[in-house]
Amino acid sequence: MAQNKLLLLFVRNPELGKVKTRLAASVGPEKALEIYLHLLQHTRDVTLPLPMHKLVYYTNAIDTNDFWPNDKYEKRVQPPGDLGEKMQAAFAAAFDEGYASVVIIGSDCLQLTDKIILDAYQKLEKSDVVIGPALDGGYYLLGMNRLHPRLFQNKHWSTERVFPETIHDIQELHLSYALLPHLSDIDHIEDLDGEDWL
């Protein structure tokens, strides 16, 4: 077990009408929930065999009887605030608890693999920050070796400006950084092109 490494997973409780709302506008809330459950299962399958400590942050309630095994994933409720405040608090808690390398992912990326996550930790051995850019202008992964609060502040969350704004702050702080492959998040009906499980 990589005792000093932590993987944070930010997920939504899978409730009808409360997940994939932008996607639901096109496919309906039932199909959106089905798609989100598929994304959660993919994220679990990718992360389950990884050697580092894993912590699932739920939006509003801890579910001890879901498909995140309790013996493999620690479980907490996300801190209050906007997405940046939530992530900053989660990273701050992780470093306060003694972790040396912390990576966060969501559950929206079907292209994410265990190899990409492992590569993120390898890149953190030589860089201050690692980031996985999403094709929509956000990012699907962010990792660092100590807390840099500015990376979570004054961002236009859920827009195409998140990744460039984050890179700008990284450069302004004179931090070294490494990029992972560009991948696609599933947020809109167009993102589902080529997916044969629908």
Automatic annotation (TrEMBL):
InterPro entries: Nucleotide-diphossugar_trans (IPR029044), Trfase_1_rSAM/seldom-assoc (IPR018641). Keywords: Transferase. The keyword Ion transport does not apply. The keyword Ion transport does not apply. One of its GO terms (molecular function) is transferase activity. It holds the Pfam family DUF2064. This is Glycosyltransferase. It comes from Pontibacter oryzae.
